[in-house]
Amino acid sequence: MSSTVEKLSSNQVKISFVIPAEDFDKAMQQAYLKERGKISIPGFRKGKAPRKVIENYYGEGVFYDEALNVIFPENFEAAVKENNLQPVDTAEMDNVEQIGAGQDLKFSVKVFVKPEVTLGDYKGVKAVKRIHKVTDEEIEHRIGHDVEKVTTRIDVEGRALETGDIVNLDYTGTVDGVAFEGGTAEGQTLELGSHSFIPGFEEQMVGMNIGEEKDLNVKFPDEYHAEELKGKDAVFHVKVNSAQYSVKPELNDEFAADVSDCDTFEAYRASIVKELEEKAAKNADVALENELVQAVTDAADCDIPEAMINDEIETMIRELKMRMAYQGIRYEDYIKYTGQTDEQVRDMYKTEAKNRVKMQLVLEAIKNAENIEVTDEDTEKQIAEEAERMGKPADEFKASLNDRQVEYLRENAAIRKVVDLIVANAQVTEEEEKPQIDAKETAEAVMQAAEAIENEDKE
Prior knowledge:
By secondary structure, the protein is α+β, with helices and mostly antiparallel strands. Among the domains are: 2-112, Trigger factor ribosome-binding domain (Alpha-Beta Plaits, 2-Layer Sandwich); 152-247, Roll (Chitinase A, domain 3), CATH 3.10.50. The chain contains 14 helices and eleven strands. The protein has helices spanning 21-35, 51-58, 64-82, 136-150, 201-205, 253-259, 265-299, 306-326, 331-337, 342-369, 376-389, 394-399, 403-424, 439-458; strands at 2-9, 12-19, 92-98, 105-112, 126-131, 152-155, 166-175, 178-191, 213-219, 233-247, 427-432. The strands form three sheets. Strands 6, 7, 8, 9 and 10 form a five-stranded antiparallel sheet that branches. It has a four-stranded antiparallel sheet with strand order 1-2-4-3. Strands 5-11 form a two-stranded parallel sheet. Strand 3 and strand 4 form a beta hairpin.
């Protein structure tokens, strides 16, 4: 077999094959042995007619298609390997120039290959690293998580319900005396004051006693999600089964020792600050890397075959299905509830999929341009980092990997080195991240500014 490759574009090639006559004849015989059982010839039982009889009856071309199927895979693989091609789609027959008994087989196929990448600037890229200053609110919020771990609940006895109590209740809701879907429950847990239920529900429960039953008169909001209940007056008959209240620990040395390795609350708080600062610094590094890699990707140019984009969409759909499965949601139910079709979901992912593929191609092109090589040490480091991310001992995690998984992590190590190169050569300036102002603060600021202008006018 001989083959020649003609470049048609930056992402497609034409491969022309010449198969010796004897190899084609062998393929024709294999095709005959495979297909003869499907062919009927008068005077012969199925599968018993000689090859020449079948060819005389139907024409020699009766076995051409199957002979090509026999010949193609092995020869295509050899041509790909010989010419160092990277196909990304199924090859399509372009032309059969010569075919027939006693002749060399000559044909060609077209196939999309991994596209060439024209790199833009990937050194000296300008970017801003936004430094987040940890706030007191964030520190208190983080401490609050530990507070919840050691908070105890005590049964409510000898008093009426109060805001903050956690109540176990039964309820039945009706509109115009008729029960509605989703309006009945038993053993429901509700924290009074959490605003989990519609307005007025929790407030009317304050003051009730354990075992007491009561009718609550409420009104569904005009923007309620259930169309048939919007703005409707409703009555909920509730029964209080039991209730508990939370007892939070004092923020002292004893609390610090319970939730950490620190002996004092001061040391514990300092460890929380350090934890949050390290997390903020890591987030800033990741954000910077993402910004730089995206800028380098945008600066490059390549013509991506549709097959590569579709393959990436398939990967993204699989990831989506896995995330949903962890939450107990079926993908089919998701598209049903969101009113979308599978095709619409795939279209929604197309832009991101194309960007992902381009990013992978650009990073690989930089790796080749810079002759970046991955050492066994690099791979071991990548394996250790992945093991840490998964919360497993490095040796145990490594032992569980097969060759394909190790190669995948080796490729990740190469990409890591490319990203490090981009960051190391970037022109980075640092800015302190501006604090986010919530809606209330924004409104107050606007009112203060308005008052100041009004006062100036009066003066």
